[in-house]
Amino acid sequence: MADRNSRLSARKKENKVENKSNEEKDKDKEKGKRPEKPVKKPEKTPEQPKTEKEKSNEANGGAAGAEANSNGENGEFQPIELPPFEIVTGELMTPFYFKFQFRNVEYSSGRNKTLLCYRVDTPGGTTEPLKGYMEDEHATAHVEEAFFQQVLPNASQECEVTWYVSSSPCVSCANKLESILQQRKKLRLLIFCSRLFEWEEPEIVEGLRTLVRAGCKLRMMKPSDFLLIWEMYVEKEEESFTPWEDCQENYIYYNEKLADILK
Question: Which UniProt keyword terms apply here (predicted)?
Answer without folding.
Answer: Hydrolase, Metal-binding
